[in-house]
Amino acid sequence: MTPRxxxxxxxxxxxxxxxxxxxxxxxxxxxxxxxxxxxxGKCAKCRCHPQGPSSEPTPLERELLTDExxxxxxxxxxxxxxxxxxxxxxxxxxxDKGDYVEVAVTPDPSVRKVYLTLPVPALHDDLADxxxxxxxxxxxxxxxxxxxxxxxxxxxxxxFRITATLLDHAGSEELLAVEPGDQRDGAYGLAFDIGTTTxxxxxxxxxxxxxxxxxARLNGQxxxxxxxxxxxxxxxxxxDGLQALQAxxxxxxxxxxxxxxxxxxxxQIYAATxxxxxxxxxxxxxxxxxxxxxxxYVAAIRDGLSLRAAEIGLCLPNARVDFLPLIGxxxxxxxxxxxxxxxxxxxxxxxxxVDIGTNGEMALGSRERLLACSAPAGPAFEGGxxxxxxxxxxxxxxxxxxxxxxxxxxxxxxxxxxxxxxGLIDALAQMVQRGIVDPRGRLLPRPQLEGRLPAKxxxxxxxxxxxxxxxxxxxxxxxxxxxxVRQLQLAKGTILCGIxxxxxxxxxxxxxxxxxxLAGAFGNFIDKRSALGIALLPSEIPAERIQGxxxxxxxxxxxxxxxxxxxxxxxxxxxxxxxxxLSKHPRFEEIFVESLQLTx
Amino acid sequence: MTPRxxxxxxxxxxxxxxxxxxxxxxxxxxxxxxxxxxxxGKCAKCRCHPQGPSSEPTPLERELLTDExxxxxxxxxxxxxxxxxxxxxxxxxxxDKGDYVEVAVTPDPSVRKVYLTLPVPALHDDLADxxxxxxxxxxxxxxxxxxxxxxxxxxxxxxFRITATLLDHAGSEELLAVEPGDQRDGAYGLAFDIGTTTxxxxxxxxxxxxxxxxxARLNGQxxxxxxxxxxxxxxxxxxDGLQALQAxxxxxxxxxxxxxxxxxxxxQIYAATxxxxxxxxxxxxxxxxxxxxxxxYVAAIRDGLSLRAAEIGLCLPNARVDFLPLIGxxxxxxxxxxxxxxxxxxxxxxxxxVDIGTNGEMALGSRERLLACSAPAGPAFEGGxxxxxxxxxxxxxxxxxxxxxxxxxxxxxxxxxxxxxxGLIDALAQMVQRGIVDPRGRLLPRPQLEGRLPAKxxxxxxxxxxxxxxxxxxxxxxxxxxxxVRQLQLAKGTILCGIxxxxxxxxxxxxxxxxxxLAGAFGNFIDKRSALGIALLPSEIPAERIQGxxxxxxxxxxxxxxxxxxxxxxxxxxxxxxxxxLSKHPRFEEIFVESLQLTx
Lengths: 600, 600
Fold this sequence. Notes:
Two copies of one chain form a homodimer.
Chain A: E1 4-9, E2 12-17, H1 22-28, E3 47-48, E4 50-51, H2 59-64, H3 67-72, E5 75-76, E6 85-89, E7 111-117, H4 129-137, E8 142-143, H5 145-157, E9 161-169, E10 172-180, E11 188-194, E12 198-205, E13 211-218, H6 228-237, H7 241-260, E14 269-276, H8 278-285, H9 290-293, E15 305-308, E16 320-323, H10 333-342, E17 351-355, E18 360-365, E19 370-375, E20 396-402, E21 406-410, E22 418-419, H11 421-433, H12 446-449, H13 455-459, E23 461-464, E24 467-473, E25 478-481, H14 482-506, E26 515-519, H15 520-525, H16 528-533, E27 546-550, H17 552-562, H18 564-576, E28 578-579, H19 588-595
């Protein structure tokens, strides 16, 4: 059982299921616990009071906390971790949603609640139940069989005083739900962001736009592989594989619904929005992603899709779910969400949004013209196919500085167990800066660097299996090999190639890009200067123009949930964005090879 | 296990599950085996050749059939009965669908099949699957998640040459199904008539209007009572009662689908229509009939309803089901079907259509104005609450003549076991004619009739428990009691009262009614003169104006299935028919009491 932590602050709740320190969990759940030292166990600002089974206090906590604090159960967020279900209350002023761009949205929900006093049936008034509602509204409304089935009971329970919830939907109105009595106050919605790894959900009040709760859970499709390709393969090759994957992600969405519905009647959740990459989108709908996974990469549907929650197995009896449109087979509605949240489509100046992951998705442009592409970076940035690579969890080296010797920092200040994506970028940038790796990605043999590096650094260049590698930690042993550098080079080259192809297609130079927005958790952790230092991003771009925007995809989903105008904008953007297949560019190979260079 | 008989004639199949003679089964399934003597075992015209376990030949068959015929398995339809699953082939010219009014309908289906050759995806053509179809059609089409889920596989199976089935539906088009290759030929529909006792289904070719197969089965809701009130009570009072009743009738519909789909791919059934009384309608939809069953008798919905077959559990992957509109809480879409089939709504002359059953439903009028009402006749016409009453099965007295003595006829020429509805009407008419029962329904004491009746007839008026009764058969004993006469009087009085109230409301006299159409099986069996003889119908109407029209409700369902124009007509008729609650008439009590008279 993965432990589960719920952060509570006033009326906001955020839940996450993962094994990490509370500080890290808070970050992943989109909540910042205060921290000056970045979780290195130095500032003790991340004092918190977890309720529930937690790890034993570390020596660092015994040093930084008083006996009285320890006896009261006060802990350091950067040290303590859940050992079961834990609740963590945070003072409201401390709670900070700063990890994502918060765009003020004027709620303009397509859902409307009306209180109706209907005439009570009598022998001289034999109108059918639904006709009473239509007459009271003064116009026709569509009604589903589900609502009809509940209608007679609810009308009589409310003695013909009812609250009708109406959905404006493709120009006509639908009766979404009926409640006995006056229930005009409660109208909620859920915005989902279905990531390959993590699924996030935000419960909001549709009338005020206020967030009520949030939750993040591991995507229940994990057992079928970590990346979209293995998931798609399973769906294609196994009997009932597609159904299993659909049920798994529906299960995760239902868990999130349960997490968020502490104080809210789930019958009053009337709308949901979903963003995700094309494979997640298809799998959540139960549509085979086979044609997306195989050349020529075609989706079954890209347009936005509106359906009843039950059709995809969600336990929301009265909700419609809007799947935001895909931009292309490899640029999903998550990227559309990023565009909406960052306002790329409305910007007078050119901006670049990049979501770096196994599959890098990026959009470049302004309100004039918007281009998007997908760059298959591979798993290197997540530590995959790197000898000592690992995910960004405890013991992962996440920062490297080379001076007279090598200094390393690890997540949770633990003994190094390996190196994560941001650490790899940092390490490589330092190695390039010190000339250990040349611009073409060759890890120079120690003899060649003799006299050009401090002795302790030079000693770290060692020979292994007739290839050179650079040792970050002797005990436990963690090193970056020539092969690792090649993997990183391919990954970063793919991202940069994508950016350069889009720039070329748009006919602009790097200095015309006014802002680079790094979406996703990874974007927040990357050292911007290191990213420029290995030319992951065009090095002409000043570091101050680069900004992490957190889960902008989820934010875009949330904006669409709150406003019909934004949903219409989303449809227009999806049609307007020009999806560009990288390999179609006439100079693709040339640009790709140039992009492999570690300086440009 | 109730035995099952399937009649086959050329490409037509009709199935029925019941224990009765083949002649009777054929009639109930809407097929006439030739018979001159009316099934009394006299004409031997109903010779047939059942394949499958059947009853032993009767003495009558041994008399009327040759040894050679008997050894070949030739039987008399009026004598032999199934003992298991039996198939009975009928020469095509013999097959006669004369039991229902057959109205020629020009097929005008709302379903259209189009063969499309779509562009094959390529790297430079990354349109989504559904966009390819929309582009080829040149217009937007709606698509359900179900079709989307199957779309990628089917497009590729057909190598992008496909047949799209489009449904014209509320002004917009929906993509109902996709098939690989050219499949424009196959487009079928099913018309259902859900009766409280029997459910009938007709499979027709939507393009030609030709009937492919038909089947009739007992409504699977039988275990929960014979009439609508006990079914409604079960749905209201038992936990999961509603679901059980819904599942039961869905099960029956699915059996009928299976019966009919011998040579037809059920994936090519795109449309279905349903008629039934309001309780059957609500139960089939899974809507509680509580408010229909209890005063002031209000339906949840009366308007026509279109849904996906799966929503009510039908195994028709690509079909939409149209529930025809109800006229009122006690005048269902079955009566609407009768109106459509008999053309009451288009008739320049005034006509009356009556469906006599536990609940008599009737419509009176012309193209100018149409009134309908429901008359709760009770079960007397089905033999219920009559001491020797029984359903119209073997051994039921179904014809009575009083001359010097009493002559009785029984179904299947068997020894009398009781008396059925048509027999009761016949017996009562004869008793009234001979003065045994006076116009007010009093069975006269024997002494009062002394000298006015032949001795043998007089002897049959016997005293039992201080009340007089009339003996129809001494051995076995079957009689009609004073109490039985009162039950019949109430039943027929209710029907006549309904007719008279509608006449009064319409401001017409009986002689202005140009045609009386008796719908349902019972209507075919009633002796018209006897019905007039007890004033079940206004006695001013000449017998030749009275006509049995068989399952006109099912015929109306079928007409609606074949033609969008007729479906539109059905909606218009349902809105136009004035449902009249009998008790609302200012002289209701007076008319009711007058209607109890056995002559008028």
